[in-house]
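User: Hey, my collaborator sent me this sequence without any context and asked if I could get a structure. I don't really work with proteins. Can you help?
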Amino acid sequence: MPRIKKTAMAMAVTLTACAGTLGAFAVPALADLGGASGPGVRAAAIVNANGSVVRSKGVTGVRRIAVGQYCIRLDSDINAATTVPVATPQWASAPWDSSIFVRPDGGTACGDSRDVFVGTGTASGARDTGFHVVIP
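Assistant: No problem. I've predicted the 3D structure and written it out in structure-token form, which is a compact way to encode the shape of the chain:
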């Protein structure tokens, strides 16, 4: 076998072995509920007014705890206390006078420090409204 061919073969075997070894140390996939894609975003979700998730990334659950109040559970590798969450009402289902409030919960309303709290409503009070939330 010519020397160039032997060298190429040795490199291919080495690269294959390295890829197999690195695969053993790969980071486990995040528990996305709806399979959303968001490069550069740790977590994001589109949530319907009833609390069901349309699609998400980095979110393991959403609970509607009261009218217009939702708890977004983040993947365990995301520290909610250090996030700056951003939320907006869904275009299709929100009235024009909608309000939305979001905060890292710290266990206050949701009971767990891994949760982000989202409140939705109008000038007349709390109201179930679909929303989008992003945690950069």
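In plain terms: The chain has a mean pLDDT of 79. You can pass these tokens on to your collaborator as they are.
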